[in-house]
Amino acid sequence: MKKLISIALALVVSASAVSAKDYYAADFGAKADGITLSTAAIQAAIDYVSENGGGRVVLTPGNWLCGSIYLKNDVTLHLEAGATLLGSLNAWDYIRDPYANWTAFVLSIKQNNIGITGEGTIDGRGFDVANCMVQYVHRGLFNDPLKLDRVQESNRPEDIHFRECKNVTIKGVTIKNPACWTQQYDMCDNLLIEGITVDAKCYWNNDGLDVVDCTNVVVRDCYIDSSDDSYCFKSHNKNGVSENILVENCVGRSSANGIKFGTMTHGKFKHFVFRNMTIFDTYRSAITVASVDGGTVEDVVVDGLRSIHTGNPIFIRLASRNRHEVTPCLKDIVIRNVYAEVPFDKADAGYNYEGPIEDLPRNVCASSILGVPGLRIENVLLENVEIVYPGKANEKYAFRGCTPEDLAKIPELERSYPEFSNWKELPAWGLYVRHTDGLVMKNVTLRVEDKDYRPCIVTDDVNGFKMEDVNIIQKDAEGKQQIVKNNTKE
Hints:
By secondary structure, this protein is mainly β. The protein has five helices and 31 strands.
């Protein structure tokens, strides 16, 4: 923890090191009328400031129509209150960077001491841009496989894409309406994201924040509302490292997952701390910690999580979708000081691009900790945790029994996409654990509000299972066996 605090202080120092001299985009010919395409003028301002000692390129109130621009060394793009960097509706105004292999509105490649600050807005207008691109494909003007009638992710512009940059500050701004992910930081070092608001519900794959193979990262005081994963940590490279990550005092809503490791998990993830997080109205899991592509995930602490109206509180998954990769590992996970409420109905109903209807109806899934044979999760601590489930499970819909024979029939799904809902039905209403070594539960309360035919906790092939002050609350269930242990050593 001391190391993470020192990282935060270092980021503040690095951010203030950039010259504060201001240059106004209007002085380089940019127009804030929402009509004039100002890409060349804003880029000229950035280039000039970078070449002349650094400083801020300032956008004053108004709508600055723009295509792809590149942020350069020692430049901060500052958006004053009322200023909007407005994405062009012409898909040809966006660049797919040949080095990053991604398309974006604001790009930066191998630059240092850069930032985006202020109280203004970046609006990618992604719904219109993405549909414009679909029309180009249908007319033969743009080459794309167009799977599911949408242009592939890397061809649709993200609002922000920074790759291999150092000393990056994103602060205060509102980022909205991307055509793909909202913001991706790939192999960056010393990254501070503070006090931003993300509104990303206009199109498919609208992740709120993607941090990929980055080191020394602080994310704090942010609000993300997204149609895909909100706070997402990935590794695209088997040699990649995500290390020393602090996320605190943040709020998320998602039609997928609130906090997620993956899905791409090829490299190493270590030393993560999440503090004082709130996840609400979220279709999938409040927190998903997964390693499925050969990566190593270790030393993850979630300390303070309030999950309200979220489809699943905790999903921890170790598997291998790609057997040619190195052996994945997932260990040393601490989840403490958690309160979660799971609804009976669909948690994100009514939002644009909500989670898939085909996963319903189903009985509400328990939290789960799932390894596979030969790949065992190691050392998980659940402490000071309270989870409230709705119950109402219908055994005539998708019965899961708890005999050894019944448990053996539950598929491993080793190569499947890692989502709790893949199993449709689990044999417990509270917690299901499989192929795990070292699970400790301290001061844990699991409550179900209505009838549920399943027991509360089911363990299968678990070594080192310890419980201290575990409370199971279910009305009208006197004498019911609430803990079923199969092939489990305490």
